[in-house]
Fold each of these.
Amino acid sequence: MQFYMYDFSSFVSLDVTENGLFPPYLQLDTYWQEDKTRFSYIIQKDDKYIGFALVRLIATEEKHHYSMAEFFILRRYRREGLGTAIAKQIFNLHQGQWEVFQKESNEPAQVFWKKVINEYSSGNFTERFEDGKRIQIFNS
């Protein structure tokens, strides 16, 4: 998570604390509880930890969809197609409507997710801008 926060600090105002670490990720522990609305995935390649994904099920009276809360692949393993393959596997694990968003300042994430979602959905997705975020909506 510290590596993810380091990368993400390029796009948001996030600094290390006096102990040299980024602040703890809020509610990270809830992804490992018996909750049916949060799902955590540790990504490995050749028995090495290379990333993670955090997925949320948003269920309200108005909406019911999955959201990719966080997604991270270590730099060394990027551009090998691993992120794309993992994202598609996660979409298949959680069937239904998805909303995947990226901060407007995070252009690399926007390029990645638009490409992955376009491939996965065969171009059958919509996109909107809201509160400084680009959001893709599609069904898995």
Amino acid sequence: MNNREIKFRGQKIGKEKWVYGSYIKVAKPTTKNKLTFKNYILTGSMAFFQGYWILERILIFEKTVGQYTGLKDKNGKEIYEGDLIEIKGKDDEASYFYKVEMIDGRWMCCNELYSDVKDTDFIKFEVIGNIFENSNLLNLINK
């Protein structure tokens, strides 16, 4: 049986720091019978809060949440949804740039054409950034 590691990352509110762990979305009732939502990453660490030990939860920006693909790049770096990757052709002369997305239940490298990450014909890929911190690299994807 394949044991897939399921984890997420998100950018901490108030700091440009990435946190990793389990993702939860907490609803909070407001006046007028409406709900507001807060997004957290549970890091797995314990914190002492109001006399109790609880799992540490860190408030994050919802738009930055990305799931771990279960894959690592050529340097051993974990690849997450929203990462930007560079793939070099077999001749090592051409470079291709993609954004990692989940499409129809599969992790895909996306640009104008779609290529499955696992079945790619390319022999090397490397995380070069992500869509949140490196938006200047997005123009490479559309070429």
Amino acid sequence: MLRDRSLIPLSHQHQHALALCVRIERASPIGEADLDVWQEEVSELFRSEIGVHFAAEEQVVFPAALRFSELVSLVEELTADHVWLRENLARTEAGNMSARDLSALAGRLSAHIRKEERQLFERMQELISPEELASVGERLQDALKDAHRTCTLPTQATRLRPTK
């Protein structure tokens, strides 16, 4: 299903986070020498975009979805994901994740994003009227105003190298 324009800003942010997840997956196993720079990049994306993104979903999207009984358990799962992801993203800020932890974080974040895109957003677009979705979009614009609007570029250490 084509994404409703009211949800597109969240989908764009999902693309930024998924790009990082793919790069972490392709770089794995991440060596000890590169672990700090990877954690810094993840931490930067959390500070500049993911934290604001989670708050916008929790303040705007999830309440709109909770009006529909069939979406309650899904929203509860997504909220629990946010708790786990915040805790682990905070660990990148402290620089105390192993390569395995970082890989697990990327996997969980990727699965979370796909669940939002394929399940939550799809059902919301089917259940909520276009006028209500437009209202959600307006509130999202305000909630996302402090997020960076560009994709973070990889550093020299975190950019993928061609495989041989």
